[in-house]
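Why does residue order matter? Because the sequence determines the fold. Keep that principle in mind as you read this record.
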Amino acid sequence: MPPKKTKEKKEKKPSYLPYNHSLFKKGIPHSEHLENIRFGEIDITFLILVLILLVFGVIMMYSASYAWAIKDDVAPDYYFKRQLFMAGVGLAIMMVVSSRLFDYHLLTNNTINKAFFAFCSVLMLVVHIPGVGTATADAKRWIDLKVFSFQPSELMKLALIILLAHIMAINYRQMNNRYSVILYLIPTGFVALLTLAQRHLSATIIVCIIAFSMMFIGGINLRSFFSTLFVGILIAAIGILILYQTDKFDYLQERIASWLYTFEPENKDVAWQTRNSLIAIGSGNLFGLGLGNSRQKFLYLPESKNDFVFSIVCEELGFIGASVVIILFILLIFKGFAIAANAPDKFGMLLSAGIIIQIGLQALLNIAVVTNTIPNTGISLPFFSYGGTALIIQLAQMGIILNVSRQSIPSKEREDADDAAVSRAKKELGETARKRMSR
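Structure:
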């Protein structure tokens, strides 16, 4: 008697959401193709880099802030405690966002990403309402929540990155179309206008660079991309020249003068911050004056705890300490791009790339401002500058990248998987041939 045929058991492929599969499938459109995406552990190297920068940043912010805290008639550790509390909140959010309780594919839901973008747009307009929005030097960029102030443009950057990543992911087959650039210019231009209305030129520049970088990475038609980029730079140059002559943006003239003629006697007042920043950097020499021993933070450097905290790093820790900070940011950026490159889908790749471009760009521009390489633009240094809501948003963004890393497949693992698939196919063919011969 011929042997009974036994049904071969199919190997069950692991689900990318083993614990909350049904919950997330309801929120993710067209989720069938995500069934077999790996859901592993977060990228530990990236997490360690984030934690090192965070701890380093909070310590340096404390050192740079206590003199101003005493001047403001509060406890010396007042700003430190507030920043430490916000760091704790941010870490908690990062842990949730990076865990299996959340999946970044939820952000591909049209209702979620468009509602988030609309909500941030409303917040960007709310700053102009008297009594709600607060102004500094006629720049209306903050919402006063009584307990703390909130800058909506920080949240808007994330909303734009999510929206652009989603639009590019669902239209990637048309990315090579020369007119597809219009799809991405509309939301980018809208956000740029909102930031300009707040007299927030630095945010406008960052938003535009992030958008164009994502277009390039996403595979936009190169001819259309470079022609649009050229026109954009031309319009920006003409716009800045026009703004330079207007009363509303008259501060641009002062900042350019303080950049070009920093140590001229007539620019003593407008270049006061830049001068003291350079004095702080020069005082640090190779090894610095020692942690806590900065002299410029004693009311000489007005924004020592905010945009110019890197000057205090240079003064207290010297060239070596400043180099360590720069290297840490470089490593974070490279690791972020590695996670983006190994993302399981185009949306995850663009989302991670957009976020890491924002962090890297802000760090680059802040350090360039502090060293007087470019004019003062009012850009904070991620993880270091005082600002609770900005820190929370930055840590939430790191959580999103870590969530992508959970589902990423490293190149070596992909090669091993391909080799294993080929071996299985050969084995199955061999077994089929032997069965046929035995008959």
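Strands lie at 133-136, 139-144, 149-150.
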